[in-house]
Structure formats: structure tokens, C-alpha cells
Amino acid sequence: MSAPWLLAMGCVVVASSLFLIKRNMLPHPPGPRPLPIIGNLFDLPKEASWLTYTEWAKTYGDIVSVSVLGQVIVVANTAKVAKELLEKRGTIYSDRPSIPFYDMMKWDWFLATAHYSDEWRTGRRILDHGMRPAAVLKYRGLQIDRTRAFLKRLLTHPEGFRDHIGHLQGEIIMSLVYGYDVQEHNDRYLNIAHAAVALAAESSLPGAAIVNVFPFLRYFPGWLPGMGFKALALKGRELGEEMVTAPFEFVKAQMRQGTARPSFTVDSLQEYDDLGGGPEHAERTVANVAGSLYMAGADTTSAGISMFFLMLLMHPDVQKRAQAELDAVVGRERMPTYEDRPNLPYIEAVCKELLRWKMVAPLGIGRATTADDVYQGYFVPKGAIVLANSWAILHDASTYPDPDEFKPERFLDADGSVRDDPALSAAFGFGKRICPGRHLVDTTMWIVAACVLSVYGIRPAKDEHGQDMIVKPDFTGALVSSPKPFRCSIAPRDGVAEKLILGYVRDKSE
Predict the structure, then answer these.
(1) Residue 347 · residue 449 · CB < 8 Å
(2) Residues 76, 79, 82, 85, CA torsion sign
(3) Where do runs of H (alpha helix) occur along 116-228?
(4) Tell me, what's the pLDDT at 510?
(5) Which superkingdom (predicted)?
């Protein structure tokens, strides 16, 4: 090779080396000062971490980072930062971090936490197709029927409203995904889902489980003190496999008998019978996607509906105005339907504000970088965990004055029409990992809110002296944020409403 070529190659090597050195000398995004070796281990919040990150933003800025035993965690506290990283640079920021506890449970089937790969992209394509707005339209009748059955349960046992909410969401998701009618009590599939969701929520956020902080602990024998997570992981593995296979086998049996009802799984099996790896591979892929939808939908919407009841209890003025709009537009002789939605702007604003006010998933699930990156002079290394703090984004006082107050009016223009707010999509995440079920969540929340307000009044429960009980709202602080148990009075608005509930709802036996 000639001397000029050698010189040119040498210059390229030197320039590249200098660039990498400079790049690695750049600081990580600012954050609390780390300690030697352990870093910010004691700074990392275990509950309601979005609130801590929001406070940190006031000191350190829009992008914050901490380091725990060498693992860098970056938090985007504004929509600008989140969109730049998770959307515009999505090829780097669309992977998921390895969660040691999930690895132990062998939950690679769960699309929400699966690594960014060809297999994930195939599953996501199936999921997006089945949950696109046009596809969700065909489930409206199902949502209305299940909501009206929910209203009747409230009439019979109002004190069990939290259980009824969980049952409602279970009915919708199981009927939609598998064409399966949930049992009235102690349903096998719902029990599996709720147990799996609870286990996942406890162990998914950084610092929530000890093995996520010290991954080497998975290799220690289970009889040692503090190794209880190993038994939990084994239980999680069994739950996960049952979630994927049991309802899927139910659908296949129904298809063989010619009795299968239309569902996401039936449609997907018919449309994706060949994914390039043979029939068994196609079936397992569809089973994984269906199980992921079943898992993701088991608790999230029910948390939002519980939040709705809490809001009505805390804000009687909102309840009164919403009911006045319903009475004027829909009347008292029937219940609202989706066709009424364009004519009920205040109800729409209530649903939007509910989405912003107390988010069900304030941080979503973290991303993992697949390559080194530089943002605004800060170095984000390969393998960093990146979190989008949707709570901070939708509680920014410069955009949403008095952000902790529930004010549906912020989504109404002067003429009373609904104001569009693209920033609200932050409640569902960003980029390639945005919640695929967001359209279903939207339609479910709307029909439940409209129907409940149409026929029920939500008021404080009474104590033993007949006085209104004061509710001090408190919320769970893991992956899914939901109101902790609270009491309220749920009663038909009047005799007309009670007759409407009974007249509109048919028992399954009829």
C-alpha cells in the first residue's frame, strides 16, 4: 500500500479516536451527586418515582440522570426531550432494558417488555393492525353491553364498585381478545391476569426488586436469606405460560368445534397463518401477542375508571355540569351512545382531563439505548435506561396552570368546543413503543364515563353518625398508579334513572 494511503488511513484512525475520546469525556445528564462505587443507589426512588424525577427537574433541568452500580438511568422530563430521543432517534431508543427478574420469569413473550427485534416487530405489527381505530370500531357494541351490565351490578351491590370495575375491564378484554365470557365470580383467567400484573408491577421499575439492582444474586442458592425473589420468579414463569396458553387453547378448541366468536385471536390466526416459520411458529406468535394484550389490558383501564369515580367524589361541581350536559343533549329516556359523543364536549373534556390529571402509567416502561448517543452536549451511553416522565410533561404549570387541580375547562375553547391537545398522547408513551391499545382505552373510558354520569350520583359515604366521610386520596406507586381503596355512595339519580338501568341491561341468561 502506498505511503499516501497509509497516511490517509492513519489520519482517519487518529480522528476517529479523538472523536471517541471527546465523546466519552462528555458528562452524563446532570443529577444528584453519586457516591463512589454504588452511585445513586440510595437516591433511586422505589415508589411514585415520577414525583421525585419531577422535583429533580426543577434543580437539574429537562433531562436528568443517575447511575447505580454503573447502570446509567436517564429521565426525560419534557415532551421536547422525549420526542427527540424516543421518536426522532427511535432506532437507538426503542429497545427495552433487560429486567433480571423478568429474565428469570422467562417473560420474553410479553411484547411490552420484549427486546427490539424482528420477532418483536412482527408481533407489534399484528397488534397494531388488530387495535387500529377502524378495527376498534367493531368492538363498540361489546363495550356498550358490558358497560350496561356494569351499571346493573352497581345497582345491586354499589359497595363493591372496585370489584365491578375490575370485572368490567376483564369482560371487555377477554371478550375482545378471545371471544370468552368471563364468569361472574372467581374467573380463572382474570385471577391469572391480576396475579401476573401485581407481580410485574412490583418488580419492573429500577430499584423495585433487589435482583434488578444486583443481577448476580440470581446465581445464589434459594435457601439463603433474601433470596425469596427466586420463588416469586418461578411463580411468575408459571403464571406467564398459563396466561399465554390457556385462553389461546380455549379459542383453538372453539374454532375446531365451529363455535368460536369473532375476536382478536380468531382474526389474527386467520390473517397470519404463515409468518415464515411454519404453522407452529405463527400460532405461538399470535398466542404471545394475544397474551400481551390480555396482560396489558387487565388492570390499566380499570385503574383509570377507579380514578374517574374518585374524581367525581372529589369534584361534585364537575359531576353536576356533566349531568346537565347529558340531560340537555341525550335526555332522560335513554342512555348515551357513541353517536352522542360529538355533541357532548364537556364529557369529552372530562375524559381528557382525567387522562392528564392522574395518569395510570406516569413513567411507562423504560427504554434501553442500543448505541452511544450525544444530546445537547450530554453523553448517553449504550445500554442506558431511558424513562419518559409523562407526569412531568402533563403537569407542567406553564402549559397546564394549577396542574394538580382537575379542570376540564382547560380543554374547552371559548365557544365551548373541545380543544385538541396533541401533548396528551404523552399519557400513552412515545414513538414505536406507544401504547397500541390507546384507541380502545379512549372509547372504553368515554362510554363508561357517559353512562355512569347519565344514571348515577357519586357522593360521600356516611359514617356511623350520618356525617359525610372525608376521603384523603392516596395512590399506588409502582408501574401502574391506581387509587387505593376508598368509600363512596353510588345511587341512581332518581327513579327514572333506576328504571333506565334495569330496562337497558339484559342478563346473560335471557
Answers:
(1) yes
(2) negative
(3) 118-130, 133-136, 140-156, 161-178, 188-203, 210-213
(4) 39
(5) Eukaryota
Pairing verdict, β 71-76 and 385-388: parallel
CA distances from 470 to 32, 175, 313, 318, 439 (A): 38, 38, 10, 18, 35
Domain CATH for 470: 1.10.630.10
pLDDT digit string, tens, across residues 434-470: 999 999 999 999 999 999 999 999 999 998 888 989 8
Domain contains 472:
yes
**pLDDT at 344 (0 to 100):** 98
Q: How confident is the model at residue 17 (pLDDT cuts 50, 70, 90)?
A: very low
Phi, psi angles (nearest 5°) of residue 73:
-120, 120
pLDDT of residue 19 exceeding 50, the answer is no
Query: Is 327 domain-assigned?
Result: yes
Give CA separation, 422 vs 80, 411, 430, in Å: 13, 11, 12
Q: Do 352 and 394 contact (CB within 8 A), yes or no? A: no
Residue 297 CA to residue 300 CA, distance in Å, equals 6
Shortest CA distance to 126 belongs to which of 255, 337, 288?
288
Q: What is the pLDDT of residues 39-53, one digit of tens each?
A: 998 998 878 899 999
Interatomic CA distance for residues 262 and 179, integer angstroms: 6
Coil, strand, or helix at residue 459?
Answer: strand
> How many Cβ atoms from other residues are within 10 Å of residue 9's Cβ?
11
Is residue 80 situated within a structural domain?
yes
d(CA 423, CA 356): 10
d(CA 345, CA 321): 11
Domain that holds residue 359: 49-504
pLDDT in tens, 192-212: 888 887 777 666 655 556 887
Cβ atoms of 392 and 334 closer than 8 Å: no
What nine digits make up the cell of 119? 420477532
- At residue 133, the pLDDT reads 93
DSSP designation for 468: B
**Closest-CA residue to 354 (of 418, 407, 417, 413):** 407
Alpha helices per DSSP H over 264-389: 264-271, 279-297, 300-314, 316-329, 345-357
In a domain, 43, yes or no: no
Cα(490)–Cα(487) distance, integer angstroms: 10
Q: Once rounded to an integer, what is the mean pLDDT over residues 307-315? A: 96
Count of beta carbons in the 10 Å neighbourhood of residue 494: 12
Provide the domain count of the chain: 1
> What whole-number distance in Å separates Cα of residue 506 and Cα of residue 297?
25
Q: Cell 446465581 appears where?
A: 219
Q: CA–CA separation, 53 vs 328, rounded Å?
A: 44
In the chain, the amino acid numbered 387 is L
pLDDT of 213 higher than 80: no
What's at 455, amino acid-wise? V
For residue 128, the Cα-to-chain-centroid distance in whole angstroms is 15
Give kind and range of the element (H or E) at residue 379. Answer: strand 378-380
pTM of this prediction?
A: 0.88
